[in-house]
Amino acid sequence: MSVSKAVNAGVYPGNYDAEEEKEINSENGENEKIEKQEKVEEKINYVTMDKSEVKIPILMYHSVSDDDPSNSLLVPINKFEEQIKWLAEEGFTPMLLEDVVQAFETGKVPEKPVSITFDDGYADNYTEAYRILKNYNMKATFFIITDNIDVDSYFMNSDMLKEMKDHGMGIENHTSIHIEFTAISREDKASIISDGAKALKDKAGVESKFLCYPVGRYDEETIEVAKELGIKAAVTTENGFATFSDGLHSLKRVRISPMDIEAFKSIFSDFIY
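== Polysaccharide deacetylase ==
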């Protein structure tokens, strides 16, 4: 029940039952989020161009951790914060996959676009990456292997995913079991995508429309199945900036390793619209 409906019904602030108060708080919270988003969008400088000219750096991370310096999939915490701090201070606009698709469809893109993604759903994505992203008002998309949710403490649980979703992060599908698509049948491809989407809906309240191919492996049949299941776009592990010509279901990304800040900056050295 909205506030106006409550007053019309003879119910006044401070006099709601628990369910009505919960609904009003939810409505107010949603309005606040919309207002904040509108204020952010007002500050963004957009350019419009032919769709074929749009290119977007989609950064690919896995883990943010100091555990194993020799593992190229683990970016040390201080290096990750240094990277995010630089992006924020330089005025880059963080884009979720929905924003990326819209940019490719309309040709309207921020002057300094960046899309930050994480694969697999490690717990440090919540304890470290999410914490740092929030500190700098940045956002990212997290692709989750859903069979690990609420099972293995090395990975994020459903409460973590819900909180991140509620704070503007993208929670998307990395399938249920993380097996290479090129090694399984068409039916199994459909099954692990559908199972992943269902788990995200059941455990995190997410309507997932984006996919990350396990180990980056995919083929034409995989793309066909993804489209049939309503997947709007999918990312690969192929290196490079994402472009319209790649196709929405085979978007390239830039792998981020434990590089120093100058190497990180060089990724964007000739890239500002």
